[in-house]
């Protein structure tokens, strides 16, 4: 029986949560990560069983081309083609997206895969189903926290990747897929729509803070710099430019994020917005309105609702540094 199956896992993610009081070594960290990874497969199998045992109401997904995070896509991407799927085809695609943790043959583990969409089912076991998803999400968060907070054990991003994908660990693991949470909407959901989002990461800094950063970079040039002398000269020009500004100049780093799909979910009288990386699972018998995600076309980009507070042209383009007007 499905209910009995859901209770047999003995799930307790708190027992594996990172602890600052009890430092781990690399072997203890590896053991905890393996336990979480093994349990993830068990929980995902249970999730599939519960969904397959439920009444399928409707579903739509919108496959996007894989994105390479190493490529600079902060400038507007001209277009992104969406491949829609509906009905059972969308359900199969959603199952794959939720559980696709390891790369297939020839698949690049560093690529980012996104499948916006929504799947609606009606189940007699909503509480158990929601509990399984809570357990999946809790374990994924614990896994991510263990990895990202263990710099003293496994080092920075590059050595971290090597540790996770080393022999005996998780060869072929698509790390971002493992980190992603599965979103659930309850029976109060009324509609879900999709759009393309353009957002900036904003950071206000003083003139002296930026000059200090540039001085430090002169003393320790990045590894990718081929001509250290030219690099130091370029930074000196930037320091001269900033020094000419008044001490109370209002400076901000306005770094654009790559365009990404976004979902608007209306539940009752509330409305929430979230990044649409994987399909939302909607639990309820009353059919919800599921919108479409259109192809992205930069020429159709909607102008911002608010006037920019920064100048149109950056002071230092490579830093995305602007002066507020």
Please report the total strand number as a whole number: 14
Q: Which strands sit side by side, in order, in the main sheet?
A: 3-1-4-11-5
Based on Cα principal axes, name the global outline. globular
User: CATH homologous superfamily of the largest domain, by name?
Assistant: Replication terminator Tus, domain 1 superfamily/Replication terminator Tus
Average pLDDT level = 86
Percent of sequence in beta strands: 15-25%
Instruction: List segments where confidence is low: pLDDT < 50 over at least 5 consecutive residues.
Output: 1-10
Number of alpha- plus pi-helical segments: 9
CATH architecture group name of the largest domain? 3-Layer(bba) Sandwich
Radius of gyration: 23 Å
The CATH topology name of the largest domain reads Replication Terminator Protein (Tus), Chain A, domain 1
Distance between the termini: 65 Å
Structural class: alpha+beta
CATH class of the largest domain: Alpha Beta
Q: How do the helices and strands follow one another from N- to C-terminus?
A: HHEEEHEHHHHEEEHHEEEEEEE
How many domains, in number, for the residues? Answer: 2
Helical fraction equals 25-40%
Biggest sheet statistics: 5 strands, mixed
Keywords: Cytoplasm, DNA replication, DNA-binding
Pfam family, one: Ter
GO molecular function: DNA binding
Protein name: DNA replication terminus site-binding protein
